[in-house]
Amino acid sequence: MNDDKQHAVWRESIEKYGKETQSIVCMEECSELIQAVSKRLRGKPDATDNLAEEMADVTICLYLLKEMYGITDAQLNEWIARKTARQYERMQTDDPFLKGEDAE
Question: At the top level of its lineage, which domain of life is listed (predicted)?
């Protein structure tokens, strides 16, 4: 299925099931991802495939949430940049090896 068809299906699911129901589904999918990460860390059988499946579900949900709540790519990218910069600063503070010349 190509990207255009995927996006059409996702938009149609919002129209068919509604914003509230789709929002609840997204919350549930995030919970399932948490469980899949836990299973992977505990070395459960087939945990890696399950993790990939739940990551796919949450990735779809991120698209749905963007669509339903009017979040733009620019907004999202700005927050990603901010959060990444903040993480970088924390890592420099926490790890003395990152403060050397090689860190730049």
Answer: Bacteria
